[in-house]
Amino acid sequence: MSKESLSTEGPSRTIDATDRRILAELQRDGRITNVALAARCHLSPAACLVRVRTLERDGYIRGYRAVLDPARLGQAMVVFVEVKLDRTTSDAFKRFAAAVADVPEIVECHMVAGGFDYLVKVRVENMAVYREVLTRVLVELPAVRETHTFAVIEEVKNDPTIPVAAPRRPAGRERR
User: Fold this and answer.
1) For 110-152, how does the pLDDT look when each residue is reduced to its tens digit (9 = 90+)?
2) Which of 14, 43, 116, 166 could bond 48 through an S-S bridge, CB–CB 3.0 to 4.6 Å?
C-alpha cells in the first residue's frame, strides 16, 4: 500500500488510506463514537482509537467543534474586503495581523499575492452594521491605505471540509 504525505508542515509522518478514511469520517461527523468509526473504517475499536490519537498528536486533527447557523445568531451577512496596505514591510504586516486578530467580525484574513495585500472575510448582521465596522474598525487598522468591499448576495458553496483523498499524480507518458 502506497503512503502519501498529507502535509509539508509539521511531522514528516506519512498517512495511509485507513488514516485518510478516519479523517474523512471525522470531518463528516465529529461526534461519531469510536465504535462506529471503527466499523466504518474496518478496524477494531482499539486500533481505531490508537490511529485517531496518533492523528491528533501529529497535528492532522487540530480539534473538534460544532458548526453553527450564522443566520440564527444574527450574522447572516458575509462581506469580503480587499485590503491594500500603505507599505509592505515586515512591521506593517505584523501590526496589521495583530490588530485583525482582535476584531470579532473578521472571521478570516488571508495575505494574498496580486493587486492587494489581504482578503478579509467579515460576518455581520446587515449592511448598516458592516458600514460601522468598515468606518470604525477596518479603515483604522494599522497601515491600511485602501479597501474594496464585496457584499455576498448568495452563498453558493461553503464547505469547510478538507479533501483527504490521496493526491492525484498528473497523467504522463511512461518512460521506456
Assistant:
1) 999 999 999 999 999 999 999 999 999 999 999 999 999 999 9
2) 43
Residue 36 phi, psi (nearest 5): -65, -40
The fold for domain 77-151 equals: Alpha-Beta Plaits (3.30.70)
Number of residues written out for the chain: 176
Distance, CA of 18 to CA of 14 (rounded, Å): 12
CATH code for 17-57? 1.10.10.10
User: By three-state DSSP, how is residue 84 classified?
Assistant: strand
Helix (H, G, I), strand (E, B) or coil at 78: strand
- Residue 48, exposed/middle/buried by CB under 10 A (0-12, 13-18, 19+)? buried
**Domain segments of the chain as ranges:** 17-57, 77-151
